[in-house]
Amino acid sequence: MSWHKYPVSFILAVLCLFCAGDVLCGSIPAGAVKNIVLTSADQLILDAIEKVNERIDKVNERIDKVNECIDNLWITMLGGFMGVMGFIGALVFWDRRTFMKRARSEMGWELKEDRHKIDAMLSAMKKLGARFPEVGDALRSFGLF
What we know:
Structural class: mainly alpha
């Protein structure tokens, strides 16, 4: 590969990049390279690089704004989810209490009805126990006679 195919400004730009890399990496102390003369093509390259850096900075700012929006959305969604879960939990607890009150009152009425039936059956068994000694013995063994 021959060097005469490349323009001088390209070769100069490559050399400038190497020098800048050495200065940034610390192998050449800052201020040691002072008298670099840039051509207009070199200046155009540096301007283009500066424009690209500005565009990257703008994109970074937009990404930061999108991240803030996502964070706000996440917090809002989490708060909404917790609110809905709290509402459902309160509704279930309230409905359970209401259901238990209603169930207890209905159970009380059913037990009263069953109690009357059981008392009637016990009276009937006691009458049978007077006539049939086996029934009386069975009632006595359970403490019902």
